[in-house]
Write a structure and sequence with these properties.
The complex is a heterodimer of chains A (322) and B (296). Chain A is mainly α and 322 residues long. Chain A has 12 helices and no strands. Chain A is globular and about 85 Å long. Chain B is mainly α and 296 residues long. The chains are: A mainly alpha (322), B mainly alpha (296). The interface between A and B is large, with 51 and 45 residues.
């Protein structure tokens, strides 16, 4: 077990370094702001005094290193500063804005993952096993088409059919915190379905490729030639070796979910982090954008880390490349 | 890997048949999906190039009534400001495809040159560039793009540069990986020993041998860039009005969908059709080039 534990710690350390550098990059966003930024944010109220006060408030009067240390210390305890929309007497802490929305986004993401992952794995394995059959070809053509579609196209198509023409599902997903689970699921149905369609296509194709790759390896052929029943070949010989690629596929696609969420939330007016970030970009509310970017990036890094660790523990061969 | 020049490299005339002849021969054998893709791409290019002559109105002509229904003077109706949808769709082809194409070209120039350079040179340049790319790729590119756009503002130039740089990381990875395999070949060593310069080696020895995967990647990257820019425009932080662009057209007219009017689906469908077409052609090309490699 020793080399595995060591590698896991190495990956953990590497992820921390990555996250650290990413946080520097995200932080630098403020430093890279054009000089007239305070003016464009303050608009009409941009007298020399207010501009100076604003620059002091976002800390532009201190050297960047000091500011970064202060910023990262606050972020570490969940304090992302105040939104640029704050005014005297009207304080809007970024953490308060993001908190409930993060829950909504996570709910949507988890719901989608619960549906999409088993479905995609099942389809992928079936397509790989019945390779070149009509089932494989149909699924292949369908998924290639779905991948080529922009997310909002899929979303509006579903909205047109399910909400407008057939009146089965609501077209807007305006969930509130006090909503019951059933009602919430009903409201989330369309965004979740959109994300599922997009993600299943990717995941299924990658699973299929991974399994086909695996089934071509000599030890599977050996097992088959020994006369082991096909089902046993899969469960005893193929599956234990398939965990690593499958976990990678899942992690990659859950990370992809992060990006899909932004667009889908916008289409269905779902109160999540993605929509918040887009609104932040439109109004150039940098603290909000920074916080959202950091959350998305951290999730992305975390997912990749988990995938790495699972692949290492299920397949120790990765420890000795080549 | 062989020294034989792939079909798309320059100056490649094989002893038996001319390049043009073999290319035409290949096209004849192309599957239906590839033909479909080629026709779609050519049609889009035609519309994009000849937009001012095809379109019935001018790009930002707001003379019509807002949200006019289909038919009559306005074949596909008008948008919220009374601009003809068909005209906007036609000009959208020019703007959206043009911007995506420029971005992809820029990303391939930066990513490809850096990738091949690091593969040939190795050492600390390679380490530095690779680690830098690792960090850039640790943030989802749409999220990164959103953040940079909020800092620098959404102008067309900013969008092109930001997306090109973020996308160049993927091109860099591929170009470096493929060029690595070529850089260890004997003929590269020979060129180096006879005193050829770095630029000559990159252009004459490496580039022709890494072309097929890069060309296929160009198609895929174009789709990706095209979808990313459309997504940004759809979110309202990409290409800004009054420039006609498919992503923003979907957003501007999206309310119509709740009345069962499919107008907003037209620009979205235009995007989808082009990406499907390009994907089909790339699929065929990949099949072709990997098939060529199997023969040796």
């Amino acid at each position: 077990m020793h080399p595995i534990v060591r590698t896991v710690f190495q990956r953990l350390a590497l992820s921390f370094v990555t996250l650290f550098i990413v946080s520097i990059v995200i932080f630098s966003a403020v430093t890279m702001l054009p000089g007239d930024f305070a003016k464009s944010i303050l608009g009409q109220a941009a007298t020399p005094d207010t501009v100076k006060a604003f620059q002091k408030e976002i800390g532009l009067d201190k050297p960047p290193v000091t500011r970064y240390i202060e910023w990262i210390q606050r972020v570490a305890v969940g304090n992302f500063g105040e939104s640029f929309a704050s005014r005297v007497g009207y304080r809007r802490a970024v953490a308060d804005i993001i908190g409930p929305r993060l829950k909504n986004t996570l709910f949507l993401a988890v719901l989608t993952a619960l549906i999409a992952v088993p479905l995609a794995l099942l389809l992928g394995v079936l397509a790989a096993l019945y390779r070149n059959s009509w089932f494989d070809r149909t699924v292949n053509a369908l998924t290639l088409t779905t991948i080529s579609f922009p997310e909002f196209f899929v979303a509006y198509m579903l909205m047109l059919f399910f909400a407008v023409n057939w009146h089965i599902l609501p077209s807007l997903s305006n969930v509130t915190p006090e909503m019951e689970l059933g009602e919430r699921l009903y409201r989330c149905a369309l965004p979740s379905l959109t994300l599922t369609l997009v993600i299943v296509a990717h995941m299924m194709r990658m699973t299929r490729a991974a399994i086909i790759n695996l089934m071509a390896s000599p030890f599977i052929e050996m097992a088959r030639l020994k006369g082991i029943p096909p089902m046993k070949v899969i469960t005893k010989h193929a599956l234990p070796n398939a965990w690593a690629p499958i976990v990678n596929v899942i992690a990659f696609n859950l990370a992809y979910l992060i990006v899909g969420v932004v667009i889908v939330e916008k289409v269905f007016v779902y109160p999540g982090v993605g929509q918040l970030m887009v609104d932040g970009v439109t109004s150039r509310d940098i603290p909000v954008v920074q916080a959202c970017a950091l959350i998305f990036a951290a999730t992305y890094i975390l997912l990749n880390l988990i995938a790495d660790i699972i692949s290492i523990t299920t397949n120790p061969r990765i420890l000795h490349p080549r | 890997m062989t020294t034989e020049a792939p079909p798309l490299a320059r100056n490649a005339v094989s002893p038996r048949k001319t390049r043009l002849g073999s290319a035409l021969n290949e096209f004849g054998k192309a599957p239906v999906t590839a033909w479909f893709g080629i026709i779609v791409i050519l049609a889009y290019l035609f519309v994009a190039v000849f937009a001012p002559w095809i379109a019935p109105f001018r790009e930002s002509d707001t003379s019509g009534p807002p949200y006019a229904p289909w038919g009559g003077d306005y074949l596909l109706g008008t948008d919220q400001l009374g601009r003809d949808m068909l005209t906007r769709l036609i000009y959208g082809a020019r703007n959206t495809i043009g911007i995506a194409l420029v971005t992809t070209l820029l990303s391939f120039t930066v990513g490809g040159v850096l990738g091949i350079l690091t593969a040939v040179r190795g050492g600390w340049i390679d380490q530095l560039a690779s680690r830098f790319v690792d960090v850039l790729m640790a943030i989802p590119s749409l999220i990164f793009a959103l953040m940079l756009l909020s800092v620098f503002g959404s102008t067309i130039l900013n969008i092109i540069i930001i997306i090109a740089i973020l996308d160049a990381t993927r091109v860099f990875r591929l170009a470096r990986a493929v060029a690595m395999n070529v850089a260890v070949m004997d003929y590269v060593e020979a060129a180096r020993l006879r005193g050829e310069g770095l630029a000559w080696i990159m252009r004459r020895e490496i580039l022709p041998n890494v072309m097929p995967p890069l060309v296929a990647e160009f198609g895929l990257r174009f789709c990706f860039v095209f979808l990313t820019i459309s997504a940004l425009s759809f979110l309202g932080v990409g290409i800004q009005p009054p420039t006609a662009d498919w992503g923003s057209m979907v957003r501007e007219n999206s309310t119509l969908i709740t009345y069962g009017n499919i107008t907003p689906l037209l620009p979205a469908g235009a995007i989808a059709l082009l990406t499907v077409g390009v994907n089909f052609v790339v699929d065929w090309f990949l099949h072709k080039t990997s098939g060529l490699r199997d023969e040796h």
